[in-house]
């Protein structure tokens, strides 16, 4: 039985196209990338990387530092180049690569005098991984979403402070831990609010209890106490609920109504439905309950332009972000007073060069 003519034609075309693709893939003129080995000495690679870092050319710096690390794994500049590579990768916002390099440096150089820097950068990179999105420019809270990276960052900073309590980076790490603690507490309370909405009183109480036990110094503590009292009231455990109500009366009397019930709405201080529907752009914003509420001045109120631009435009002079800054812009040094590698690796925070005053020198001469 012979095939129809059109089927024979289609088969011939298919075989022809397949042969053409095979021929292109096996083109002998295509050059293969071959590693030709080091093209410069160790010192030349390192000096090129330093010049690239001084010019903020981080891509070129990474190439030179990676070549130095590859071809001279036991060289004179290898360990310092690995630390410089941490900084360059971080400036490129390659946080995953930064974390991998930091962990490798910690594993291979546990006794290095600057290994505390690797611990610090690992925590900062994990922290930035959690906020590497447009959410940082809106009034939305990252704590209401995935907080897995900040949990890892918190543990990274704990390791840093435990191993190097007198490190140059311990103070900043402690401040970041305080901020992360507030984020984790808000994440737990957000889950507790959801559990209350679906009337899962025991689950809500467990979330609030976790905040009281692990994050007692956070702004979420008043709401956590109110949630515990409210949940135990709903569960019928009035004796336990009354204990928390007495605590609220002593510390946050505005959260207890005149009839003895918990004012959970006042504890939350949620934004209006317009504020939530517009992702925080319009309407009444949410506020955190404090012992003494402070009224913001007109200069501190966010303008409509600031809200509509997600905080990018029309910033007030007193406006500051609650999240610690990951990078501090270094001060431009004098021509003959270049920053040390410690100054560069700490984003300009440490080992600052002494500024020279040319006018004073001229006057003295």
Automatic annotation (TrEMBL):
InterPro entries to which the protein is assigned, alphabetical = BamD (IPR017689), BamD-like (IPR039565), TPR-like_helical_dom_sf (IPR011990)
Any GO BP annotation: Gram-negative-bacterium-type cell outer membrane assembly
How does the record say this protein sits in the membrane?
Answer: Lipid-anchor
Which residues belong to the signal peptide in this entry? Answer: 1-20
- Region Disordered, annotated ranges: 315-365
Task: List the keywords (alphabetical).
Answer: Cell outer membrane, Lipoprotein, Membrane, Palmitate, Signal
Looking up Pfam families in the UniProt record yields: YfiO
Comp. bias intervals (Low complexity)? 324-335
Q: Which GO terms describe its cellular component?
A: Bam protein complex
Q: Which residues form the Outer membrane lipoprotein BamD-like domain?
A: 40-243
Matching CDD domains? BamD
Q: Where in the cell is it found?
A: Cell outer membrane
Role summary: Part of the outer membrane protein assembly complex, which is involved in assembly and insertion of beta-barrel proteins into the outer membrane.
Q: Which NCBIfam families match?
A: OM_YfiO (TIGR03302)
Q: Report quaternary structure and partners.
A: Part of the Bam complex.
Q: Which family does it belong to?
A: Belongs to the BamD family.
Q: What is this protein called?
A: Outer membrane protein assembly factor BamD
Natural source organism: Acinetobacter junii
- Mind giving the lineage of the organism this protein is from? Bacteria, Pseudomonadati, Pseudomonadota, Gammaproteobacteria, Moraxellales
């Amino acid at each position: 039985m012979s095939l129809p003519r059109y089927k024979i034609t289609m088969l011939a075309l298919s075989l022809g196209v397949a042969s053409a693709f095979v021929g292109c893939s096996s083109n002998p003129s295509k050059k293969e990338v071959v590693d030709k080995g080091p093209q410069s000495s160790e010192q030349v690679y390192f000096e090129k990387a330093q010049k690239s870092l001084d010019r903020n050319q981080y891509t070129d710096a990474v190439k030179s530092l990676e070549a130095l690390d590859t071809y001279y794994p036991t060289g004179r500049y290898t360990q310092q180049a690995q630390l410089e590579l941490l900084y360059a990768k971080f400036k490129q916002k390659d946080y995953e690569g930064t974390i991998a390099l930091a962990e490798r440096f910690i594993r291979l150089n546990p006794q290095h005098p600057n290994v505390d820097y690797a611990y610090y950068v690992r925590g900062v990179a994990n922290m930035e991984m959690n906020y590497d999105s447009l959410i940082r420019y809106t009034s939305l809270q990252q704590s209401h979403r995935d907080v897995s990276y900040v949990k890892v960052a918190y543990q990274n900073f704990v390791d840093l402070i435990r191993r190097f309590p007198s490190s140059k980076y311990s103070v900043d790490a402690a401040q970041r831990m305080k901020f992360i603690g507030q984020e984790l507490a808000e994440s737990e309370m957000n889950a507790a609010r959801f559990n209350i909405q679906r009337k899962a009183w025991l689950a809500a109480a467990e979330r609030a209890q976790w905040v009281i036990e692990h994050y007692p110094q956070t702004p979420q503590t008043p709401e956590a106490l109110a949630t515990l009292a409210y949940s135990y009231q709903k569960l019928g455990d009035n004796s336990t609920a009354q204990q928390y109500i007495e605590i609220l009366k002593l510390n946050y009397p505005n959260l207890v109504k005149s009839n003895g019930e918990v004012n959970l709405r006042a504890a939350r201080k949620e934004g209006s439905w317009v504020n939530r529907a517009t992702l925080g752009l319009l309407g009444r914003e949410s506020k955190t309950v404090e012992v003494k509420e402070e009224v913001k001045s007109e200069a501190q109120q966010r303008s409509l332009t600031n809200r509509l631009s997600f905080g990018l435009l029309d910033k007030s002079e007193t406006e500051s972000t609650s999240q610690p800054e990951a990078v501090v812009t270094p001060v431009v040094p004098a021509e003959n007073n270049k920053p040390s590698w410690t100054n560069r690796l700490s984003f300009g925070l440490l080992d600052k060069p002494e500024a020279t005053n040319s006018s004073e020198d001229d006057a003295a001469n």
